[in-house]
Description:
The complex is a heterodimer of chains A (313) and B (476).
Chain A: H1 3-35, H2 40-50, H3 54-60, H4 66-75, H5 83-96, H6 103-119, H7 129-150, H8 155-183, H9 193-205, H10 209-216, H11 222-230, H12 239-257, H13 262-275, H14 279-285, H15 287-308
Helix pairs in contact in A: 1-2, 1-4, 1-5, 1-7, 1-8, 1-9, 2-8, 5-6, 6-7, 8-9, 8-11, 8-12, 8-15, 12-13, 13-15
Chain B: H1 24-32, H2 35-52, E1 56-57, E2 66-67, E3 71-78, H3 80-104, H4 109-112, H5 118-122, E4 144-151, E5 157-163, H6 170-183, H7 185-190, H8 199-209, E6 221-224, H9 233-243, E7 246-248, E8 253-256, E9 259-264, E10 267-270, E11 273-276, H10 280-283, H11 299-304, E12 309-311, H12 317-320, H13 322-325, H14 328-336, E13 343-344, E14 348-349, H15 353-361, E15 366-370, E16 380-381, H16 387-399, E17 404-408, E18 414-419, E19 422-431, E20 433-437, E21 440-443, E22 448-452, E23 466-473
Parallel strand pairs in B: 3-23, 5-13, 6-7, 6-11, 11-12
Antiparallel strand pairs in B: 1-2, 4-5, 4-20, 8-9, 9-10, 14-17, 15-16, 15-17, 18-19, 19-22, 20-21, 22-23
Amino acid sequence: MLGKTAGGLFWMFRYLERSENTARLIEAGFRMALTRSAVGADEWKSIVTAAGVRSEFEARYSAYETQDVIDFLLRDPDNSSSVKSSVEAARINARLVRIALTREVWEATNECWMTLTKVLAEPIPERDLPAVLGTIRQQSALVRGALHGTMLRNDIYDFARIGTFIERGDSTARILDVKYYVLLPSISYVGSSLDNVQWETILRSVSAHRSYRWLNGGEITPKGIANFLILDRRMPRSLAFCAAKLAGNLAYLADDYGERHSCHELAEHLRERLRNNTIDMILEDGLHEFVQGFIRDNIAIGNEIERNYRFTG
Amino acid sequence: MQESSSFFDEMLVPGDENPREPYRNYSKWIKQEDPAALKRKASEAETFFRRTGITFNVYGDDQATERLIPFDIVPRIVSAREWAKLSRGIEQRVRAINAFLHDIYHRQEIVRAGRLPARLIAENEAFLPQMIGVSPPGGVYTHIVGVDLVRTGPEEFYVLEDNARTPSGVSYMLENRETMLQMFPELFSANKVVAVSGYPQNLRRSLAASSPGKHEGNPVIAVLTPGIHNSAYFEHSFLADQMGTELVEGHDLKLVDGRIAMRTAQGYKPIDVLYRRVDDEFLDPLNFHPDSLLGVPGIMDVYRAGNITLANAPGTGIADDKAIYSYMPDIVEFYTGEKALLQNVPTWRCSEAESLSYVQDHLAELVVKEVHGSGGYGMLVGPAASKKELSKFSAKLAENPSNYIAQPTLALSTVPILTRKGLAPRHVDLRPFVLVSPQGIKITPGGLTRVALKEGSLVVNSSQGGGTKDTWVLEE
């Protein structure tokens, strides 16, 4: 496989993952804005921060108005992480690597782009937002379904999965990074209704509010949430899950190509660090520092993969 | 259906209820179809093309950079007998073109024999001095040729142009058939249509057979594209995909140990055969256009050393040059010893004073083309031009006569298309695709039919409002 193709697959699936993550953040923020008008602006600010586009947003708008934030995250062409920009970037990469994709995956991606370009052509009024977010979810699901159902399990699939988990790990870590203070045990108003709302937003922004309750019998605690998002390997968006999948897919590549690289060492190290940790140890050493460390390592692994597999030269 | 008597219609006979022989079955079928359902099918076809992403890019058009080539659902049907005759003529012509190219870059016997003026070669931009004395692997210059044919009567076919550089359109030929098979399977049980789907595999075999043979096992083949912004990118990725080869760009390639190698995720891997869809002048910044980012520095040296096959060979443009075109009947005769089976369109070379004055006097009746032009750009269709356009063109012609050739306006045949008001005749041409390898010449039955969708228009180019049709060659 060409290095360029490996890179194209990696980025195609990063962008697809990103579009979904951004949509999920919008959904969490919108729900919050509907149920708690008083905390709206603050919540939107943390959501924009978690999406990694705070400075871009603030350069453009002076206040965090619901309609502005939604428009910025959903369809602003100048926001490279907006759903619209991400889907467009995913599709450009898909065209670049088209010969590596099955017809089903290509067509699902192309259709996703065509549908969302049409849906997101105009600003979305509040009453249409749930339906639009539903369409985004459905379109991504179609691409994912085509990937799992039709692709050979070879290096092409590995690079697609590696891009997915780098992006997903980064996204979950950023949500934790923005909200870490809500999860600290020392915080004074633990158990207040404000916290309940905050916790629920965190869970919603990774689509885990139901699964968390299901697994924990309705007992929502900050430590429980931190544990769920960081260490629970049943949870497909947790840091431990992403790190394990990343190391696993890299290992398939090493097997397939008969060659190990620096990225393998780094990814395995990260996986082990998550595997051998407990939430108490993490909280004791500092949740913030831990999450920051994860983001740094995850980026470093991404860079090594790009270098080791010659994405650009 | 509207009747048009001055042109040969391939389906209908004026004043006769029965269509021509090849269309008998089809005609019966379409008469029974509900017109509204047919129109729905036509729009279904568009959705199919868009979802599959069968698009072409339009240069200088930022907003709608990806466009569809309109597809018409009425097939163009050719009988087995007509096709047999045509393909003999095409094969003869392509054989002559390859012999001509070898001769032109070696001893130039045809010039010595006085059959072709030396200045036509020496002063021709399409002649590549870097190719002098170079013999490509297997002796093949044009691995892929697209011969543009037009028809003016039951037995009258003319070659309009020989595309010997990097002919495009074959992906449309293949996808048009796929679309028809999906939309009208019943038509293919009622008509025995020769399949075209073997093209990608034949292309792969043909390229592999032309490899320099410096490898163990199967040769490594790759398709070189200028990139995703090129107007034919869809076709490049389509062919690479169908052949199961890599699709590379210039920046994926580099010179490694005297060979051209592609950057894979596992390091550099040498390439044996490069099906390049990048023009000669952009192929190698060291040997040609120094600013080109599309090519590979040093690839010409590797090629001359016999360490890679380029398909088509550089310098083949000298064979499809419009100034050379008028000599094609002589060229065919010189190299094959036979009379040319396919006719040339009578051509006035404006470089010759006598011809120029004739062309200037008859501008309103002629089609005038730039010698190096393509895609229907820079061309004058006399009968369709206004007085102002004619006088403007006349001035251009006077300024640089040797840049132009002129031909009579041919009465191109028509085939019906489906319009809102039902079937209506439109002018067509045909581009059959020819594969040449050391093992022989293979012509895919049929080819790409291009159709001028505007009533009365003679320009079929997709960049100028043309569409395409599926082309059927019937089994005996």
